[in-house]
Every structure is written in C-alpha cells, then in structure tokens.
Amino acid sequence: MHAWPASEVPALPGKGRDLRIHDTATGGRVTLAPGPVARIYVCGITPYDATHMGHAATYNAFDLVQRVWLDTKRQVHYVQNVTDVDDPLLERAIRDGIDWVGLAERETALFREDMTALRMLPPQHYIGAVEAIPGIVPLVERLRDSGAAYELEGDIYFSVDADPHFGQVSNYTTELMRHLSAERGGDPERPGKKNPLDPMLWMAAREGEPSWDGASLGAGRPGWHIECVAIALDHLGMGFDVQGGGSDLIFPHHEMGASHAQALTGEFPMAKAYVHAGMVGLDGEKMSKSRGNLVFVSRLRRDGVDPAAIRLALLSHHYRADWEWTDQVLQDAVERLGRWRAAVSRPDGPSADALVEELREALSDDLDAPAALVAVDRWAALQEAEGGTDDSAPGLVSRAVDALLGVAL
Question: How many domains in the chain?
C-alpha cells in the first residue's frame, strides 16, 4: 500500500530542541533524545468513512512530532497502518450494499487526498492489515505455542496474565478496562475466557465474512491489536520512540498491543513514550462515525476552505486537549491566515530570528502549538504596526511556519 506525496520541509538556520512530551504510561513529561533516526508508529484509520476533524487533529499532532525531530537534523522513520478489514468496515459495506474491499480502497484514497492537502508528512511505510497477515500468523502461533495465548472454539485469545507489565500503559482500573473493552470491540462477557479482558488474536472464519489461510491457526482473520504489533515490530523493532494515536486508543488498543509485543520479545517497554491526542467534539459530543456528528476535511475543501486554514484551526488547540469544533474556530483560523499572509507579503519586516527560537521552544515543550501561533501573531502585528528593515525576515517567517507548523504562506 502506498502513502501520499511529501511536501518539502524547508531547512532553517540553527538547530531545534529535543522534544519534551507527555507520556501516558508515566503520566509525566519525558525528554526524547533519539539517535540519528527517530522512530514513530501512529495508528491509522479504519477506512469506512471520510477523514473527519478528529482524525485530522490526531495526525496533525504527530506531524508536529516529526517536524520537531527534523528540525533537530534527525531522520524520521514513520510507520502507519490501515485497518482495512474489521467489523465496522464490513458492517458499513453490508449496510450500503457495496464490496468491502472497494469501500476500503475508496476511503483510503480520500484519506490520502486529505493528508496531502493538509501537508501532513507521509509515513515511510503505510501498511494495510490485509497485506500484513503473512507476518501476523507466525506471531500468533508463537504466542499460542509459548502459552501466552489459547484457543476458544476455534478463536485464539491472548492471555493478559502472560505480560507482567499489563496495565502499565493506561494505568486504568480493572473495572474501567472491562467497561472500555465492551465499548471498544472486546468481548469481556464471552464464556470460557481465562480473563474477561483477554483480547482476540485470531478470529476463526465466519460464514459470509472474509478469511485468510492461518496455517496452523486455521482459516480466519487477525484481531485488531496484533495487526499493529506485527507491523511495528517488522519495521521499527522494540523500544521505538513514540507510539501515537487518539486518546480513545489508550485502552484497549495500545495497552493490548504493548502486552502482545512484550510477551513476544521479553523486552519492555514496546515504546519509550505513549502519546495521545485529545478528542474533537461537535454539538457537545465526541466527533465519531457511530454518532454521525462529523465535520469532514474533504467537505470543507469542496466548500472552498483553504486547507492551511483548516490546519491553523487544528493548531489553535493543544494536541492533548479535548475541544469543540465550531464555525467560529474555523473563521478565526481563516482570519489568522489572512493576517499572516499579508505580513509575509511585504519586502521587509522586523527581525525574525527570535521568532524562530520562540517557535522551537514552544513546540519542543509538549507540542505547544497555541503558543507558537501567538508568537507568529505578535510578529505579524509588529509588522503591521511598525514594519521593519530586515529584507530576509518575511521569507524566514514563511519558511519557519512551513517547516515547523506545516502551514504554507
């Protein structure tokens, strides 16, 4: 599976700062100082509907992570998956009377278009769950053969008791885990499981549903969590720098994925930092496909909204915050974009060297994009009020905003 084209990231004078970021597992800030190559895995979409603002906010957060690393003169090895076979996808295909493969391909293509328009840097490896199945089957077999997994009526379940570190990503109570498991695709009430929280690794073939050869596992398809584990271990290995996604993935997805990987390798932790973006709401509720309260990136683009304004709307909220999408949020972003473009269109202006350092400091401090926007606002206001004599300043501001914030002026 291919990703989307990369926009050029301008080089800035000097060097950026190491990223200090909130780690869900420890509940505090960690300073990430990767080697020459920083490694990040971000969980991708289940492609049964178009990219909404919640998706866009999540991928914007991890785009900023990449930009901070690139500014430190590191390379970035970024991996993202596509869950291109899953119950919600199959259910939507049946509802709409269309082929599930065609639905997945159509929505993945639209996602690529949205990411390109928003200038999100693409992953080096963009892997669908279906194409990863040949690498998933041996991992499930290893877990089963080692006693970390067991069979129940043809299905294979992971035993959470096999990982002594289970629970250390979310730090949730057992009661909350059980509640979220039932709410987010698990089956804690199924009789015969060793632990109600045990997640499925391999689902035996069901009539009318797609299945693949699972060697000694029998025909079936993989569970949700093992898909990402197989892809991450294959392309990044253990101990990579950031595992990212929305806060709704803390449990069960990232908790279970970490336990799968740790049971497979005997190493801990799977990732040095578990980083999670907040939820975007509309009309008082989390924006989600199940509720249908969605604002789509593609629809805004069709309505003529500049993708740079969409991105500024996302950047105006801290990535970890839950926030509400409103018409005013977008209008404020449109106006800000206009002010910035007017400011950099002049032949000279106030010196921008200090601004570049302000942007670096804000973004290295847990991706404080709102503070970065305020810094550019101040420079633009000074440009409007007083101007300046530095003929390199407008160009430097434009390059810095592009390189660090992903906004083309």
Answer: 2
Report the C-alpha gap between 278 and 158 in whole angstroms: 28
Quote the CA–CA distance of 207 and 226 in Å, as a whole number.
22
Domain CATH for 198 = 3.40.50.620
Q: Are 2 and 40 in contact (CB under 8 A)?
A: no
Tell me, what DSSP letter sits at residue 205?
Answer: P
**CATH code of 352's domain:** 1.20.120.640
CA distance 172 to 274: 14
Structure tokens at 342: 């007017």
Q: Which two tokens stand for residue 257?
A: 């994925």
Q: Rounded to an integer, what distance in angstroms lies between the CA atom of residue 21 and that of residue 29? A: 5
**Structural domain of 263:** 19-277
141 in helix, strand or coil?
Answer: helix
CB 48 within 8 A of CB 289: yes
The reported pTM is: 0.96
The pLDDT tens digits of the residues spanning 336-383 come to 999 999 999 999 999 999 999 999 999 999 999 999 999 999 999 999
Alpha-carbon distance 66 to 34, whole Å?
12
Residues 174 and 75 in one domain: yes
